[in-house]
Structures are given as C-alpha cells and as structure tokens.
Design brief:
The protein is an all-alpha fold. 80% of the residues lie in helices and 0% in strands.
Length: 60
C-alpha cells in the first residue's frame, strides 16, 4: 500500500502548490485592482478639477 502514501503525498503537495498560486494570483489581482482604481480616481479628479473650457497639456 505504498502507492497510497505516494498519492497522499502528491495530493498534499498539489494542494499546497495550488494554494500558493492562488495566494499569488489574489495578491496580483488586488494590486492591479488597487492601482487601476487609484489611477482612474486620480484621472477623474484631475479632469473634474481642470474643467476650464480648454483643459489639456499646455493650458495648465
């Protein structure tokens, strides 16, 4: 019954690898989401603040 122990070991290592990949993926998605929402908020705020008819580079 040594193959059962081997299967259990493979299963545990696969689960650990999957959990590690999921954690890395979640952190990446969180970072991308935070960066995107932060950049989008900054962009919208900049546009709202600089709505003076001619808003663009060179008119600041």
């Amino acid at each position: 019954m040594s193959w059962a122990n081997t299967l259990v070991g493979l299963y545990i290592s696969a689960v650990n690898t999957t959990r590690r990949l999921m954690l890395i993926y979640a952190l990446m998605m969180l970072g991308i989401g935070l960066g995107f929402s932060g950049g989008l908020t900054w962009y919208i705020m900049a546009n709202i603040v600089s709505t003076g008819g001619e808003s663009g580079p060179g008119h600041g």
